[in-house]
Every structure is written in structure tokens, then in C-alpha cells.
Amino acid sequence: MAILSSAGRAPVARHASTTIARTGESSRDLAQEPRRGVAVSRRAALLGSSAAVVGLGRTKPAVADDFVKDPSFFAEWSYSQPADIIPYIKATANEGDPASVLTAMDTFGRYYPMYKLGDEKGRILAELVKERRPRRSVEIGTFLGYSAIWTASNLPPGATLTCVEFEPRHAAVARELVRFAGLADSVEILEGAGSERVPDVKRRVGDGVAADMIFLDHCKECYLPDLKLMEGAGLVGEGTVVVADNVIYPGAPDFLDYVDTSRGRYETTLLEAAFEYDQVWKKDWVPQRDALSYSVYVGRGDGGT
Fold it and tell me: pLDDT digits over 270-296, tens only?
């Protein structure tokens, strides 16, 4: 499994077959990775200064790193329930402009940290969408619609995105923000657990066809069983791209093992990025490195060693 960092640019459709260690284990074969050491874990490979220097190019984040909080923000804008973000977005973003909605969500998230993909990973996801040009996309774990807006605003004309969000309050906000961004015609948001809505997602993608792209960003322990359910339902076919967030931190080791290139099912690359928000309320919190996994389905492998 190749590891790509933020420096430089490489076509994301190409994948190295190098097998790297599962989290917490030593590497079996890192001979093709440009690293100083051989016996390193996947987490160490991503966190270490010797990480690979080939990857997706990024533009400057929408919210600058030197952002300074305005203390009056908290008096004007509260966040006690998910819907509280809507008035802020409508007051500061332009209706029908997805980029301005994303920027407003990023700014709101600077004051009130929340679970969302974040600007850096959002741009990675957008690059993947623009390069793959999926006609039928699926997202499991939508929260307030941030990643759905990134995806839908970069889809080719006529393409669709079907989302599943477990929490009804989050789904309601996501629908409104997607609508405000001008993307309601291409995005449908279903409520419920990803595992329970697989049949409904399949009906929307279409009988006898697979999804072109699937994005996973829900409970990490659900990634693998939900992926297998989608495989069984025919949502995954040759060439289907499966992108998953937080595979290093907090981590999804069983999922990474399953999609490891050496297993013969998928060709997988890890796209390095920072964990999307700092948990400053935690004592001794240290910013974490993370990655999106990018896997292309190639067939039902027999497994590796």
C-alpha cells in the first residue's frame, strides 16, 4: 500500500503494490517506499518525517492558519444544537455558491469544533471526484453535509450522490445546507444506519449497476461490515472507488487489512492529511496525522499472507 503525502503531484489512478505493515506491526516489505527505516508501522510511516514526498497537490486552505478568533462571535452565534449552524451559514455565505458555504462551515468550525471532513481532506476528496468523474456516488456518514457539498459541487453534470446519515437532526441540517448551496437536485440524504439502508441505496444507484465512488466517514468499526454488505448488494463492482476517512486516526485497522493491495481485492493508496480538528478540550492533546484511504476494486482476492 503506497503512502502519498501533500508535497508534489501524482495521478491518483496509479497504485503501488507495496505491502506495508498493519497498525502496530512491523513492515513485511517496504523496499519500494522511500524511507530511512524498514521496520515501521503504518502509523509511524505517516507520522514520521521520512514520509513519501509524492502526492496530491493542494491549494491554500479556505481558512488561513493565522486565523484569530473574535470573542464577540460566541455572543452572536450559539451552537447548542445542530440546526444552530444554519443561521450563520445563511448570514455569511452566498446562496447557490458551494465554496462560500464550505468556507462559512470552516469558519464556524474554528469557533465550535465539530465532526466534519475539514478543508484539507475536502480538497483531496474534490480532486478524486474531479479525476474519477463518478456518475453514481454514495456517502455513508454525512453529518451536516460538509463532505456531501465537496463531492456534489465537483460531480460531472447529471451525476448523483446518495448519502446516509444516522442522526435525523444532522440529516435535516445537511439537507438544508445542501439546498442552500444549490446542490439539492444532485444529492439525496437518507436517514438511518448505513447497514440498514444498503437496499435503499442500491435502488437509487440502479439495478444491475455498481456505484462509481463510495465515501465512508461514519463509525470506524462499521467500515468493514458495511463495505461487505455493499459488496454483497452489488454496489461495488470492477473499478468502484472506495474512499475512507480517519483510517489512521482514530483508525480502522480491520478495514485497512481487508482493502490492502496484497489481498487482491482492491488496489489501495493512503493519502496523508492532518486529522481534521484539534480536540483542545482534552488535556495534553497533540495534533494527529491521519489519512484517507483510496481503494479501487479489482476483484475478489483470495487474501494475502
Answer: 999 877 665 555 666 566 788 999 999
